[in-house]
Amino acid sequence: MGKTLAYKILEDHLIEGKLSPGEEITIRIDQTLTQDSTGTMVYLQLEAMEVDRVKTELSVAYIDHNTLQTGFENADDHEFIKSVAERHGVLFSKPGNGICHQLHLENYGKPGKTLLGSDSHTPTGGGLGMIAIGAGGLDVAVAMAKGTYSLTAPKVVKVELKGALRPWVSAKDVILYVLQQLTVKGGVGRIIEYTGEGVKNLSVTDRATITNMGAELGATTSVFPSDENTRAYLKAQGREDAYRPLAADDDAVYDEELVVELDKLTPLAAKPHSPDNVDSVGNIGEIKVDQVAIGSCTNSSYTDLMKVAAILKGRKVHPDVSLVISPGSSRILEKMAENGALADIISAGARIIENACGPCIGMGQSPKSGAVSLRTFNRNFKGRSGTLDADVYLVSPETAAISAIRGVLTDGMSSGESLPDIAMVDFTPNDNFIVYPDGHDKENTPVAMGPNIKPFPRNTALPETVEAKVVLHAGDNITTDDIMPSDSRLLPYRSNIPHLSNYCFEKIDSGFSQRCHEAGRCAIIGGENYGQGSSREHAALAPLYLGVKFVIAKSFARIHRSNLINSGILPLVFANPADYDTLELGDELVIENAPQQVKADTIKVKNVTKGLVYDTKPNFSDLEINMILKGGKINAIKESGR
Fold first, then answer.
1. Which residues are 604's β-sheet partners?
2. Do residues 248 and 193 lie in contact, with contact meaning Cβ atoms separated by under 8 Å?
3. How many C-alpha atoms does 261 have within 13 Å on its Cβ side?
4. Strand 322-325 vs strand 351-352: parallel, antiparallel, or unpaired?
5. Cis peptide, bond prior to residue 517, ω within 30 of zero
6. Any bridge partners for residue 530, and if so which?
């Protein structure tokens, strides 16, 4: 029986466990990446583990999220990250260099390697044939300290691509179609592996767009084979020596399959307020557009922006539209300045903003009240743009650009306009934005700790009896943006959990934090896919600080579930989903004999207020049980001494 590409790479990195779906495994991690929104917490945790040099082949600390320096807080975080990077042998990418995933693709990604990143869109590296996984910050800190990562071996879904894309249809439309078919929870516990003759018709940056947004499926990661297109991309980046061919066996067996006929796709859009709320641009119709934002780690490549420049050249952005563009890297911006494309974009009336995440994570460029904003980003959760009543649509760069010209959502296929082919170009390597850990002298490199940087909260060992009051009864698809909002107002405080905790759940329940303070010991009730979205562990650390002891939900998103366990918070799943409807705010819940119950197949939760008992499923692995008993991952590591 042949092997999938995903399992070939995992097998090559397997340290412990049986490589079979549902089994717990530990793999070797070759590379890690962090970004500054999650990075400060990662490096506080790395320091707490008292290690010397990182154990990976390569670790990079990128600054790309908190680049609006309206006060000292972000700059202090950056200096802290830089100092810890120097102490531990980590490369430091200065602000202005670009977005971590685009930069890693250009400079460091290698086919067949493993990459763990403290950002949910780390699977971008799967476009190069990597097993690239997004994780919570503590998991990445441990990977740097130990060179390993433990996970449940996923199933592998085969997505067979047939044919070739037509003009005005792009890689963004491919992943939007997959999201339409599988939904935002369809990838949970799965790796999405792309195969078929249609793969050869997609460039590496096309593939990276698809693997990037695979995060919205809830997938562990997504991966493409490494082929001659991969070689061509690496050669253009001056890194052909990193190339190696990789593919699944011809007789590989998959757990599930989906066929995508590329030549039948049309321009698509994700409607408000979910990436899987997908329809064709034609069906949605020519709605009036107020803002267009092009960029993000999904669609800020050279090819993407050159297509945009070609559409805008010699034309004018509609008077009612604000068009903002953020290139993915300094190298891309430099090349577009050299070839005149940047002038074409500016001449059309577009605003060029910094090579950074920017509006994708609510860091500036919030649309006006009630606006329609077209974005080439990966998420359109309600309020994520910074404007709660805005309607955000996710579209391709081509659709975004022509809509910016016409002032209405436009299907380029029906416009009668042609699109030029964008030729691949060679880039001159430039590491002027990279600070190397020269010398690596930990003892003589002090940590630069600004006044806004506070220690991360630590849990205590699991007591015999866990008591908690229900402080929130939430619905389905609660996102980490819902739990811990991310915008220009709060991002500067990502290293200050006590301050951040005051805003926990504020978008959906402004009284949450106050109820937690009053209750002291708290429980949250959630629906399906609780904790989807970003990898930010702040969505676990802030509840931990507020006294949350456990969360009972119908199902959990992968990364958030791990982050809860890492913090010593119990994520429990209703055995009977109908029990969800019997719980209310203020109900007093009790788990008796908790240390014994977490080792069992079922944990019984008593509702003292209503006289009911709920069966919940912990589904904890042996490693997870140990973390829960000790009060979190850091405590478990400290106690074991390794």
1. 615
2. yes
3. 2
4. parallel
5. no
6. 556
33: helix, coil or strand? strand
Spatial separation of the C-alpha atoms in residues 78 and 431, rounded to whole Å? 18
Q: Is residue 232 packed enough to be buried (19+ CB in 10 Å), middle (13-18) or exposed (0-12)? A: middle
Residues of the chain with pLDDT under 50: none
Question: Of 12, 50, 56, nearest to 33 (Cα)?
Answer: 56
- What pLDDT does 439 receive? 66
In this structure, are residues 510 and 536 in contact, taking their beta carbons and an 8 Å threshold? no
Tokens (6 digits) for 605 = 């939760």
* Res 440: pLDDT: 61
Question: To the nearest 5 percent, what fractions of the chain are helix, strand and coil?
Answer: 35, 20, 45
What's the confidence (pLDDT) of residue 641?
58
- What is the distance between the alpha carbons of residues 195 and 200, in angstroms, rounded to a whole number? 9
Residue type, position 77, single letter? D
Q: What pLDDT sits at residue 510?
A: 93
Greatest C-alpha distance within the chain = 72
Report whether 630 contacts 636 (CB < 8 A): yes
> How does strand 391-394 pair with strand 372-375?
parallel
Q: In this structure, which amino acid lies at residue 204?
A: V
The rounded distance, in Å, linking the Cα atoms of 514 and 504 is 10
Report residue 176 as tokens: 């939007």
Token pair for 63: 């600054």
The token duo for 476 is: 């389905």
Spatial separation of the C-alpha atoms in residues 133 and 571, rounded to whole Å: 21
| Closest by CA position to 321, among listed 385, 405, 396, 390 | 405
